[in-house]
Amino acid sequence: MKAERAFVDSGVFVGAFNKRDSNHERGKSLLKKIGTDFKIAYTSDFVLDEVISRLVKDIRKGRLRKERILERIEKAIQDSALVRLEHVSESMFASAKTCFKEYRDKYLSLTDWTITIMMRDFGISTLMSFDDDFDTIREIEEFSSITRIG
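^ thats the sequence. predicted structure below, dont judge the formating
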């Protein structure tokens, strides 16, 4: 049975798009699950920014290459019927900052906390990510339903 939804973290997109990335095959494999194992995937504008920034930094091939990267990302994320790009609201960002400050023992970035808050608010329990720091949030009751695959 196909699960409803998953959330995709930046590392999965970066791995899938960059052939030289150590997670290239894993990233491609996870993205192929969208539409088969999962009906739809979500990601955020904060994640999209991370993806573009990391790919441009990793590849560094000049202006034409940057434009190609942007085109591929637009096609794969922004223009996809299988991936919903959501915007981090002011209240989500405020909640993420609160968690960032409150849970000092968790090594999540502020963007990671926005992902966690968005997943909680949207009722999404599956996270596609290579970042095992997300595994530590299961100790927090309000995030205990989040499971990372990757």
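The longest strand covers residues 38-44.
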